[in-house]
Design brief:
heterodimer, A: 335 residues, Rossmann fold, elongated, B: 267 residues, alpha/beta, nine-stranded mixed β-sheet, two-stranded antiparallel sheet, 29% strand
C-alpha cells in the first residue's frame, strides 16, 4: 500500500493492568529522531483495555499523537484481535514506518501484520537510522548468531516495519504531554478470535528475574563449573552488590540455572550500568546480549577469552579465588 | 492427526568464525545441521504421535539439494515422509516471499498427503533469527497461530499449546488447522534409532519445484518478490582500551579490581 503520511508509529504494548511495557517507551527515543528526519509526526499506537496509564506514559515520553484502541476484547493479547486492530488503523491512517518492540507478543504480531499488508518487516533490530541516500529506514540487526550485522531497507513497500529488541534504546526524559489523543473504536467479533487463553502460570516471585531493569548484573558461565558455583560464588557477589544474577547459554544449557537468567542472543538483551561476567568466555551470542552495558567487568582464567575484547576491566584469574575476596571487600566497604 | 513440520538446514552458528583480515564469515568447514528450533517442533509432533500412533508426520524443507541430509535426519528421528521444495526461482527470498512459497507448497503437499491438522515450525532459524516465517505462513494460509510453543497436546478439535511468556507460561487453546512455532522445551529431543537411520538413508525424498506449484505467482517469490533488501553487512566492532588486571595472586587481583572499581565509582 501507499503511505498517506510521513508519520512514524511506535506500537506501545501494554501489560494487563493497562500500563505500557518499557520497550514501547524506549522506542519513542529513536522514533523521535527518525520521525524528525522523515518530516512526519511521532505517533504512539496503544491497543488494550483500560490503557490510561500507557496513554499517560506515551504522552509524557514525547509522542506527538496517540492512537488509542481501548476495549475489553483487547484485555489480553491475541494474535487475531491485535492484528485486525493494527491493520485497520494502518489502512485508515497510512503511516510510512512502524516500530514494534521485539517481545514475544511483538514478534507474534509483527509478521502477521506485515504479511497482511504485504510489506517488509525486519526482525529484532538493534540499531535504527534513516538511510541518507534513499530516505528509507535503515534497519540494522544481528544475523548468524550475532557474528554478522546486516542493514536492511524496504524501499518500495509501505509501511516499512521492524521489530526492535528491548533494552537497546533508553527511555527519554519525562516531559509534560502535549499529544493529540485520538480514540478509535475497532470491534473484533469473538468468533474471529481463534485462540483462547486457558491458563496462565506466572513465575513465582522467587523465580522472577528482572534482568532488563537491573542496574548491576553478575553473570556466570561455563567457568562457574556447576549449580553449586552459582550458589557459593555468583549469588553472594550479586547479593553484596544488590545485583541480579545472569548466566550464559552454556550454564543454562547445562541446567545449572533457569533459562530466565540467560543473557544473549537466545536470552535477554541487557544494558545495565555494570555487567560482571564471571567464567564467561564471551561467545558472540553472549556479547550480542550484553555489549550495550555501560561498564563491563570480566573475570576469566583464559587471557585470550573473547570477553576481554569487550571488557572495560578484565581480571585474568581463577574466579573461585577472585570472587570471595571481591565479595568480602564490597561487604566491608558497605558495612 | 496429520502434522506438517517445516525445517531448515542451517550452518551451526556456534561454529562460525570471523576471518580477522577480511572481516567476513568463514563458512568453510562449518557443519550444516537441522535448525535446533525445528528439532523441537519435530519432537512436539513426535510426542503427539506417541499419544496417538495413527498420527502422520510429514516434513518439508525449502533449500538446495543438500538440504535432503537434514530431511533424512528428521526421517530418522520421527518423520514418516519428507519433501524438498527447491527451485532457482526461490533463491534470495526474504521471509515474506519464503512464507508465500511455503504456503503454496503446503497446498501441493495437501494434494499428496491429505489436509494437515497442524503445521509446526521452529520459532526461528539460528542463521536468520527472524521468527517471521511461521506467522507469515499462517497469515498467507488464513490459519490461527501460536508462537513460542513448548508443548502441544490434542484435545478434540483443539490443540492445547503451552506457550512461553516473558514472565511465565500460558496454555492456549487453538482451533485446528493451525500453525504453531516452537521454542526450547525443558526436555531434550529424542535421538534416532539405528533402524530408523538405515531406513531414512534409503528413503526417496521427492523434489517439489516451481513448475509443480500451480497456484504460485512467481512475481511474489525470490528476490523480486521480497520487499526487504540487504543494503550491507558488517562485523560488529570490538571495544578497545580495556584495563587488564593480573597480579601475583588471585587475591591481589581481586583487591586491585575492587580498588579500581571503587575509585571509578563503578561499585
Amino acid at each position: 500500500m501507499e503511505a498517506k503520511t510521513k508519520d512514524l508509529w511506535v506500537f506501545i504494548e501494554t501489560n494487563e493492568d493497562g500500563s505500557a511495557k518499557n520497550v514501547g517507551l524506549e522506542l519513542l527515543t529513536p522514533g523521535r529522531m527518525m520521525a524528525d528526519k522523515q518530516g512526519g509526526k511521532l505517533v504512539a499506537v496503544i491497543i488494550g483495555s483500560g490503557v490510561d496509564p500507557a496513554v499517560g506514559a506515551a504522552n509524557s515520553h514525547g509522542a506527538d499523537q496517540l492512537l488509542v484502541v481501548d476495549s475489553a476484547e483487547y484485555a489480553s493479547y491475541t494474535t487475531d484481535a491485535y492484528t485486525s486492530a493494527l491493520c485497520a488503523l494502518v489502512e485508515k491512517y497510512g503511516p510510512t514506518t512502524i516500530l514494534i518492540g521485539a517481545t514475544n507478543n511483538g514478534r507474534d504480531l509483527g509478521p502477521r501484520v506485515s504479511c497482511r499488508l504485504k510489506t517488509g518487516l525486519t526482525a529484532d533490530c538493534t540499531a535504527l537510522d534513516i538511510d541518507e541516500e534513499s530516505g528509507n529506514v535503515a534497519w540494522t540487526r544481528p544475523a548468524f548468531g550475532g557474528n554478522l550485522m546486516a542493514t536492511i531497507l524496504c524501499p518500495d513497500h509501505r509501511p516499512q516495519m521492524g521489530t526492535v529488541r528491548p533494552g537497546v534504546f533508553k527511555k527519554g526524559n519525562i516531559a509534560p504531554g502535549k499529544a493529540e489523543i485520538i480514540k478509535e473504536c475497532i470491534h473484533v467479533d469473538a468468533k474471529d478470535i481463534r485462540t483462547q487463553v486457558l491458563e496462565i502460570i506466572r513465575d513465582m516471585d522467587s523465580e522472577k528475574v528482572d534482568l532488563e531493569g537491573a542496574e548491576i548484573i553478575v553473570s556466570g558461565g561455563r567457568g562457574v563449573g556447576g549449580p553449586e558455583g552459582f550458589e557459593t560464588h555468583i549469588k553472594p557477589l550479586a547479593a553484596a552488590l544488590g545485583a541480579t544474577v545472569g548466566a550464559s547459554r552454556a550454564a543454562v544449557d547445562s541446567r545449572w540455572i533457569a533459562h530466565s537468567h540467560q543473557v544473549g542472543q537466545t536470552g535477554k538483551t541487557v544494558a545495565p550500568k555494570v555487567y560482571i561476567a564471571c567464567g564467561i568466555s564471551g561467545a558472540i551470542q553472549h556479547l550480542a546480549g550484553m555489549s550495550g552495558s555501560d561498564c563491563i567487568v570480566a573475570i576469566n582464567k583464559d587471557p585470550d577469552a573473547p570477553i576481554f575484547d569487550v571488557a572495560d576491566y578484565g581480571v585474568v584469574g581463577n574466579l573461585f579465588e577472585v570472587l570471595p575476596v571481591l565479595t568480602e571487600e564490597i561487604k566491608k566497604s558497605r558495612a | 492427526m496429520n502434522i506438517l513440520v517445516c525445517v531448515k538446514q542451517v550452518p551451526d552458528t556456534t561454529e562460525i568464525k570471523i576471518n580477522p583480515e577480511t572481516n567476513t564469515l568463514i563458512r568453510d568447514g562449518v557443519p550444516s545441521i537441522v535448525n535446533p528450533f525445528d528439532g523441537y517442533a519435530l519432537e512436539a509432533a513426535a510426542r503427539i504421535k506417541d499419544a496417538d500412533p495413527d498420527t502422520k508426520i510429514v516434513v518439508v524443507s525449502m533449500g538446495p539439494e543438500q538440504a535432503k541430509s537434514a530431511l533424512k535426519e528428521c526421517l530418522a528421528i520421527a518423520a514418516d515422509k519428507a519433501y524438498l521444495v527447491t527451485d532457482r526461482a526461490f533463491g534470495g527470498s526474504d521471509t515474506l516471499a519464503t512464507s508465500y512459497i511455503l504456503c503454496n507448497a503446503v497446498k501441493k503437499l495437501e494434494e499428496l498427503e491429505g489436509p494437515f491438522d497442524a503445521i509446526f515450525c521452529g520459532k526461528q532459524a539460528i542463521d536468520g533469527d527472524t521468527a517471521q516465517v511461521g506467522p507469515e505462513m499462517a497469515e498467507h494460509m488464513g490459519l490461527p497461530q501460536v508462537t513460542y510453543g513448548l508443548e502441544a497436546v490434542v484435545d478434540g478439535g483443539i490443540l492445547k499449546v503451552t506457550k512461553e511468556m516473558e514472565d511465565g507460561k500460558s496454555v492456549i487453546g487453538v482451533k485446528m488447522p493451525c500453525v504453531v512455532t516452537f521454542t526450547k522445551p525443558a526436555w531434550d529431543p529424542r535421538y534416532p534409532t539405528i533402524k530408523r537411520k538405515m531406513a531414512a538413508n534409503r528413503a526417496e525424498i521427492p523434489n517439489i519445484t516451481a513448475a509443480e506449484l500451480t497456484t504460485i505467482d512467481l512475481a511474489q517469490a525470490g528476490l523480486k518478490g521480497s520487499p526487504t533488501k540487504v543494503k550491507k553487512t558488517f562485523v560488529p566492532q570490538k571495544k578497545t582500551g580495556g584495563v587488564k588486571i593480573q597480579e601475583e595472586t588471585n587475591e591481589d587481583s581481586a583487591k586491585k579490581l575492587f580498588a579500581t572499581l571503587s575509585a571509578a565509582s563503578i561499585i
